[in-house]
Amino acid sequence: MKRGILLIDRGSKEQEAAQELEVICKEVQKKGDYVFANYCFLEVRPPYIEEGIKEALKNKIDSLTIVPYFLYPGKKVKAAVTQVMKHQATTDVKFLVTKPMSMHITLVRLVENRIKSALEKEGVKLPNNKVDVLVIGHGSKDPNAKISIKYITDELAKSYRNADYCFLEIEEPNIEQGIKICKQRDPEVLVVVFYFLHEGAHVKRDINVDLVPALEKHKMKQVLITQHLGTDEKMVDLIIERAGEVER
């Protein structure tokens, strides 16, 4: 059985998103033993889904595993899957669609790695139960998005002094409100997690438009910022695990 795998990402104008996806696909292909591994975008920039499917089908594969590479379930995931399945009728290659990258303990472990790295970089040696965490997500009109990020903070709260979430846009609490909540808890150190897949415009610019003034307004003893999720090996493992769920 010759298997291929195709990641469908939302899309970003920033070149870093494509570069990160290239790294991830190479690792997934090698670690998952796929004949073909590549990515495409739902919107914003090519290669779009149609191009991604056509490129995948040029390879002599028996099945193609489609991975909605999104942190939240919702309309974008449904739109991506709908577009993909239009092409199933045109080929004998079997399409398998995974769950998105949400509600999984591996994401919690990845976030914990990001927190640990931020603390180590600044030489902070406090135990986890003395550390506060604020996870900043994108925000969505879909209620499942809030459930997904709350899953992360609920798991983090088992180890850290406090774990809260807020959103860049669309939903509340917004970033200023999230920082205010953290300030009221008087943390020894607050670690702010950028809960985004790529180093796109949100990570490079948009978050700081709200975060910097919020931190100046609600001054705390020490605030550390993590890297986004990016090309962490645990994300590769999660993709392969999600793929395995439908391939089995």
From TrEMBL:
UniProt-listed InterPro entries: CbiX-like (IPR002762), Sirohydro_Cobaltochel/CbiX (IPR050963)
Recorded superkingdom: Archaea
A Pfam family recorded for this sequence: CbiX
Keywords: Lyase, Metal-binding
Molecular function GO labels: lyase activity; metal ion binding
UniProt protein name: Cobalamin (Vitamin B12) biosynthesis CbiX protein
